[in-house]
Amino acid sequence: MYWFHFSSELLMPFFCLLGLVLIYFGFRTIRRHRYRKRHWVRTKGQIVDAHIEVDVDVVPFDRDDPVDTSYTRRLKVRFYTTSGEIVEFWNPYSTNLSFNRVGRKINVLYNPANPRDALIAGGVNGAGCLAFMLFMIGIPFALTGIFALLKFFL
User: What H or E segment, with its residue span, contains residue 132?
Assistant: First the structure.
């Protein structure tokens, strides 16, 4: 006999906990992004490379389309610090929605104490998009878990 199934009482607190964890990471991402906007230096950079990551999943149960392929892009950006130093970095956030092309100018935030600690400022390649997605996924999970727990206890 299975100890866990979809009507299990463990599923309700799990959904609630998962939603709260996602919301926490969304707030944490926003706080870090706001700190960077206040304390880091903003400058213009240029996209010098784009790495496309291909993820192919073979799903034997789906007979219509057994192969699920997804593409994400990471951007490499070059910029000059206020002291004139040239810095190149790979943006830590990748996306499959990026319309930024190689050679395009883009806003960059970098840590003045360590210029290699940099990222793209805003857009779908920024932290705001990630935080928004964490909220949008976390809120329904948390609400579903909370309503299920209330229904269970009332």
Answer: helix 127-153
The gap from C-alpha 69 to its chain's centroid, in whole angstroms, comes to 19
With a CB cutoff of 8 Å and minimum separation 6, the contacts of 8 are none
Domain borders along the chain are 12-153
Cα separation, 145 vs 154, whole angstroms: 14
For residues 11 and 24, what is the distance between their CA atoms, to the nearest angstrom? Answer: 20
Is the pLDDT score of 4 beyond 80?
Answer: no
Band of the pLDDT at 83, cuts 50, 70, 90?
A: very high
R_g (Cα) of the chain, nearest Å: 21
Please tell me whether the overall predicted TM-score, pTM, comes out greater than 0.70 for this model: no
